[in-house]
Backbone:
C-alpha cells in the first residue's frame, strides 16, 4: 500500500490544479483562518456529538472498535477537523487526506460513512458561522463558501485514494487469478501438462509461455500437453499465441501436443482458415497422454494377460 | 419475440472480453445452438480486436437480434474511427495483414457468418456489419 501512497504524493501538482478547479484562492484561506479559533474551541464538542451520532448505528459502531480504539479515533478526528481551518493546505495536508482514504479502504469503512461524517460536521459548524456576532453577513458567506470548497477538495482526495487502493487490490487479484488459471504440472516422467481455462490474451500468453518453458527445462520433459478443453473459442489472435508457444517449445527440443480440441472449436478453426497441420492434436487429454507415452516408448502390460 | 439490442465501447483490451460475453449471452438467449454461438463469438472476438488494434482505441460494437418467421438472427456492427481500409477486397483476402498478425481475421469472419459488409472511408473510419441466421426452435 505504501506504493500507492507514493504514487499520490508525486501527484501533488495535480492537486494544485484541482484547487484552481474549485476556485480555491488565498481569499478562501483567509476566511478559513477566521473560523479557526471557533473550530478549536468547539472541536471536542463536535467530535463527541459526532461519535454519539455514529454510535446509534449498529453497522457503523462495529468499525469504531473498543474503548481504546475509540479514543484514538476521536483524537484523530479532532485534529482532522482542526486542520480543516488551519490555513495550511500544503503537501502535509495533502498527504494526511490521502492517508485517510487509504486507511478507510484498508479497514473496509464504506465511503458513505466518511461522506456523511462531513455532512454532520457541516450541520454542527454552520450555526457558528452564521450565528456568530464576530462575523458580518459577507464574512459568513465567505467562510461558508471557503469551507465548502476545502471539504470538496478533501473528499475528492480521500475518495480518489480510496478508489485507487481498491483498484490496486483488484489488479493484484487479477494477477493472482491469472497465475492460478494457467498451471503447468508434471503428470509423468518426461511429460508436462498445461490446461488452459478461458481465452488467451497478450498478457496471459506471455506469462503462460514463460511458465511452460521453465517447467519443461526444469523437468527435462520431451513432451508438453496443452489442453484447450476450457477455452471457449479460438480466434486468430489466440491461435497465433498458441502457435508462438508451440514454436518456442520446439526451440527447446520438446514437442507440444494440443489436447481437448472440441468439435465446435475444430469447425471454427477450419472456417477461420487456421493451419494447424504441423501440430499434433487430440480430442482428449487422455488420448494426448497416450501419444506422449508412446513417444517416450513407455508400454503398459496388462497383468491379466501376462 | 422481443427485439433485443445494445452497444458496447471498444477502447481497451478488456472491452473485447466484455463484447464476447455480451454476445455469447445474447446469442444463447436468441436461441442459437452452441456451434453457432461459438462461430458468432469467434467473429466478435476477431472484429472487436480489429477495432481495438486499428482504431487508436476509439470504437464501438452495436448489436440487435432479428426475427423472421421460423428464423432467428443476430446483426452486429463494429464501427471504428481509425485510418480506414484503402482496399477492401485486399483486406478480405486470406493472409493479408498490416498489423503483423495472421491476416486470417476478415476472411475467416466472412466464412463464420452468413453475411458481411464493409464500409470504409480513409481517415474517417470503418463499419463492418455481420449477420448470422439460424432456425428458430
Residues:
Amino acid at each position: 500500500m505504501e506504493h500507492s501512497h507514493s504514487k499520490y504524493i508525486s501527484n501533488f501538482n495535480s492537486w494544485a490544479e484541482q484547487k484552481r478547479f474549485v476556485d480555491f484562492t488565498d481569499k478562501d484561506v483567509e476566511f478559513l483562518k477566521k473560523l479557526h479559533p471557533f473550530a478549536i474551541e468547539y472541536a471536542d464538542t463536535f467530535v463527541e456529538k459526532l461519535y454519539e451520532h455514529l454510535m446509534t448505528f449498529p453497522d457503523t459502531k462495529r468499525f469504531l472498535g473498543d474503548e481504546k480504539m475509540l479514543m484514538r479515533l476521536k483524537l484523530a478526528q479532532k485534529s482532522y477537523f482542526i486542520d480543516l481551518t488551519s490555513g495550511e493546505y500544503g503537501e502535509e495536508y495533502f498527504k494526511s487526506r490521502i492517508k485517510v482514504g487509504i486507511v478507510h479502504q484498508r479497514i473496509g469503512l464504506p465511503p458513505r460513512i466518511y461522506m456523511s461524517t462531513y455532512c454532520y460536521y457541516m450541520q454542527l459548524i454552520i450555526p457558528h458561522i452564521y450565528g456568530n456576532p464576530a462575523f458580518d453577513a459577507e464574512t459568513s458567506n465567505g467562510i461558508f463558501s471557503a469551507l465548502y470548497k476545502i471539504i470538496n477538495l478533501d473528499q475528492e482526495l480521500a475518495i480518489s485514494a480510496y478508489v485507487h487502493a481498491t483498484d490496486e487490490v483488484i489488479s493484484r487479484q487479477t494477477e493472482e487469478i491469472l497465475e492460478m488459471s494457467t498451471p503447468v504440472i508434471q503428470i509423468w516422467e518426461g511429460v508436462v501438462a498445461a490446461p488452459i481455462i478461458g481465452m488467451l490474451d497478450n498478457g496471459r500468453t506471455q506469462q503462460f509461455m514463460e511458465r511452460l518453458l521453465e517447467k519443461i527445462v526444469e523437468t527435462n520433459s520431451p513432451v508438453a500437453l496443452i489442453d484447450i478443453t476450457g477455452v471457449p473459442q479460438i480466434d486468430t489472435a489466440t491461435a497465433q499465441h498458441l502457435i508462438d508457444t508451440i514454436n518456442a517449445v520446439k526451440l527447446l527440443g520438446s514437442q507440444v501436443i494440443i489436447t481437448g480440441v472440441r468439435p465446435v472449436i475444430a469447425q471454427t478453426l477450419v472456417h477461420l482458415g487456421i493451419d494447424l497441420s504441423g501440430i499434433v492434436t487430440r480430442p482428449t487429454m487422455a488420448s494426448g497422454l497416450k501419444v506422449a507415452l508412446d513417444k517416450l516408448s513407455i508400454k503398459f502390460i496388462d497383468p491379466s494377460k501376462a | 419475440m422481443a427485439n433485443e439490442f445494445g452497444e458496447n465501447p471498444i477502447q481497451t483490451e478488456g472491452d473485447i472480453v466484455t463484447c464476447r460475453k455480451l454476445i455469447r449471452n445474447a446469442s444463447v438467449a436468441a436461441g442459437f445452438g452452441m456451434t453457432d454461438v461459438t462461430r458468432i463469438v469467434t467473429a466478435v472476438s476477431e472484429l472487436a480486436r480489429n477495432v481495438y488494434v486499428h482504431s487508436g482505441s476509439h470504437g464501438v460494437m452495436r448489436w440487435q437480434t432479428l426475427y423472421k418467421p421460423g428464423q432467428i438472427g443476430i446483426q452486429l456492427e463494429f464501427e471504428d474511427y481509425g485510418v480506414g481500409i484503402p482496399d477492401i477486397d485486399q483486406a478480405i483476402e486470406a493472409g493479408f495483414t498490416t498489423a503483423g498478425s495472421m491476416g486470417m481475421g476478415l476472411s475467416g469472419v466472412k466464412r463464420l457468418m452468413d453475411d458481411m459488409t464493409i464500409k470504409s472511408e480513409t481517415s474517417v473510419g470503418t463499419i463492418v456489419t455481420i449477420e448470422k441466421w439460424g432456425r428458430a426452435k
Chain B has one domain: 5-135. The first strand of chain B starts at residue 5 and ends at 9.
